[in-house]
Specification:
7-stranded antiparallel β-sheet; 155 residues; alpha+beta; signal; globular; two-stranded antiparallel ribbon; Protein Transport Mog1p, Chain A
């Protein structure tokens, strides 16, 4: 009987995961005003969720458990990635942080979510992706987050 319960629990968890076993349908999301582009998993983030500051769009999963912001804004102060990150007071308990002269990427946990931010700097603009998703599904999201992050481009 315990085996049946375990299978049912596993099936329930698998069926409610925002990142399903179905193939992900990818498209390119572009911001015409800034030349920002990114690979976008349209079959996961199916709902628009408002506009961020600057240019871009927020999206969320149909169940609201995960969200993605694709955004670009002028780098008014001409900050380096490290200076910009410091000015925005990131949480002290960052789990992952990478800064170069052209980008920063940071990630950590907040409550029951993983948050991941990457911003590329070019030609007076900051091009960013911000992703929040359930910490309990971190492994399932790894490939999706990696593809989004590595595909971020800006002119």
């Amino acid at each position: 009987m315990n085996w049946v319960v375990s299978v049912l629990v596993f099936a329930l968890v698998a069926s409610t995961s925002a990142v399903s076993a179905q193939p992900v349908r990818w498209t390119t999301y572009s911001i015409a005003q800034t030349g920002t582009s990114v690979d976008f998993p349209a079959s996961i983030f199916t709902e628009e969720a408002g506009r961020p500051d600057g240019y871009g769009q927020r999206f969320r999963t149909a169940d609201g458990r995960a969200d993605l912001t694709i955004q670009a804004a002028p780098n008014v102060a001409n900050d380096s990635p490290a200076a910009f990150l410091a000015k925005n007071h990131p949480p002290a308990r960052i789990q992952y942080k990478r800064t170069t002269p052209r980008l920063f990427a940071v990630s950590s946990y907040k409550a029951d979510k993983v948050w991941y931010n990457r911003c590329n700097f070019s030609s007076g603009l900051i091009h960013c992706v911000l992703i929040n998703y359930p910490a309990s599904e971190e492994r399932e999201w790894d490939d999706v987050v990696t593809r989004i992050s590595l595909s971020l481009r800006g002119k």
